[in-house]
Amino acid sequence: MWKLSEDLAKVARWLLGLAMLWPIFGCHKDSCKDVLAAIERSGGACAFVSNCTQVAARGKQEGTENLRTFWIDAGDAPELEKFCGMRPQFVVCNRDSGLLTLQLKGGFCHKGLVVSVSGEKLSEDRAKQSSQASERWRWKRVDDFIYWYEE
């Protein structure tokens, strides 16, 4: 009996330790509500789309003219951080669709935004085509030109 309770205590400590580490992994951070509030505080969706359009335009000028899809190092998109404090893991621009994908979190809890930088309104189906979206991802329309995704 004593051995069983020692084993249960070890398991309980392990689970408690795991629960305490969970916030470090960041799955709770950058919720849709938090990101949208930051965008609103910084001038709203139109200003955010305008910033994303500038990021995509600058990326196109930096030797990517022959690429259909190009990656922009998140560090090379300072206007996003200055604008609303957003620090994406990566930014991908798809020239064919005119969409910019900003992944804020990856791993087991993908989160991010898909933004139409072509001036064409964005549908959920079109947003899903812009990234390697999983069937498990949930999509939320933020604006005519912005969709939020999360796993």
How is the secondary structure organized here?
Blueprint: H1 2-25, H2 32-41, H3 45-61, E1 69-72, H4 78-84, E2 90-94, E3 99-105, E4 111-116, H5 124-129, E5 138-143, E6 146-150
Antiparallel strand pairs: 1-2, 2-3, 3-4, 4-6, 5-6
Helix pairs in contact: 3-4
Verbal overview:
By secondary structure, the protein is an alpha+beta fold. It has 2 domains: 1-26; 31-150, no CATH class. The chain has 5 helices and 6 strands; from the N terminus they run αααβαβββαββ. Strands 1-2-3-4-6-5 form a 6-stranded antiparallel beta sheet. β3 and β4 form a beta hairpin. It is elongated. Residues 18-26 have low confidence and may be disordered.
Brief rundown of the structure:
This protein is 42% helix and 22% strand. By secondary structure, it is α+β, with helices and mostly antiparallel strands. It has two domains: 1-26; 31-150, no CATH class.
